[in-house]
């Protein structure tokens, strides 16, 4: 019986492909795929709408979204300011005044700023709070349309007294303006000093 090792090369030479030519090791025994040039009946439905819109310039918002002068005449000034804040789309910044009359260290104020930044980030609002002084924190944000959410958050915090955006100041309902609070604290301080001085004279 012939040795299998000597017969194997002969068998290999006898192998031929389907088209009658010798077997090609480059093809790896796979048949070729033929794609026709007639692709009229082929439908490419793999692209979704977001893929079609990718790279196109965004269209400006429709004029229906714009405030009309007739709308403004029926609104109070505070309503107009609130509407403008809600429509802001670029970066925004402002200041938060902390409650006055509370002794805080720089570390305490820094901790408040860091806490607010982290909490808002978990809610999807990208805002950064930075310490200015012991009673003021500055904030910056990339997306101005989140300002109303930030304003609600800040006024829910017990440490905050007032939030300022541009020349607009927002406080909790019923809270007096910051200037009145400062004046009241000064008067109380004067009264304490006068009471202390009169007790020393006795």
TrEMBL record:
This protein's name: Mesoderm development candidate 2
Gene3D superfamilies for this protein: 3.30.70.260
Alphabetical keyword list: Signal
InterPro entries (UniProt xref): MESD (IPR019330)
Recorded superkingdom: Eukaryota
Residues spanning the signal sequence: 1-20
Biological classification of the source: Eukaryota, Viridiplantae, Streptophyta, Embryophyta, Tracheophyta
Positions of the UniProt region annotated as Disordered: 50-71
Pfam families cross-referenced by the UniProt entry: Mesd
PANTHER family on file: OS03G0148300 PROTEIN
GO biological process, one term: protein folding
